[in-house]
Design brief:
5 helices
């Protein structure tokens, strides 16, 4: 493979979600991600409906800081200056935080999620938390690889061939 054909990792940054960033992030979500990957099921119509768009906006406004009323913080993920998705931290216990991430389809498979998770792990550790948790499903192979590569211990709810079985990941921070 020639040097020009090799994939160069993107410069990844976590950006606070201002109103302007939120508008851009929503555009990425609608144009480049499935609504089920980004929001809970809401409304009577599937896909990106008005209820899901409202939830998305309200969620990011509320997720302004770990010490705020929602006890969570979300960031937009910037890759080489383009918004690629979002990652969050949520306080779920005295010394435990939870994380979640989504990326637009066109940004997947380029190491962006790995770098964003590395950045959020550092922020979780700096917050004083001892453990970072994440939940996915047994069928989400990309998420399982990402979590394992970040040092997570994985626990399946039940051994099963069902891809929808929940998997909890725990990343020790100290």
């Amino acid at each position: 493979m020639s040097p020009s054909a090799e994939s160069v990792p993107a410069a990844v940054r976590l950006l606070d979600v201002s109103d302007a960033v939120l508008d851009q992030l929503l555009t990425v979500a609608i144009q480049d991600a499935d609504a089920d990957e980004v929001t809970p099921p809401l409304g009577s119509a599937g896909g990106w409906n008005s209820e899901r768009i409202s939830w998305f906006r309200e969620y990011h406004h509320a997720a302004a800081g770990l010490d705020g009323p929602a006890q969570q913080k979300s960031w937009a993920i910037s890759a080489d200056g383009e918004l690629a998705g979002s990652i969050r931290l949520k306080r779920i216990g005295a010394d435990t935080l939870e994380t979640g991430i989504w990326l637009g389809r066109s940004f997947r498979g380029h190491g962006i999620a790995r770098e964003a998770l590395r950045l959020v792990i550092a922020r979780a550790g700096a917050s004083g938390a001892a453990v970072l948790e994440a939940t996915t499903t047994a069928g989400n192979a990309a998420a399982l690889v990402l979590l394992r590569s970040s040092g997570a211990e994985l626990e399946e709810a039940e051994a099963s061939g069902d891809a929808t079985v929940p998997v909890r990941a725990r990343i020790p921070l100290r």
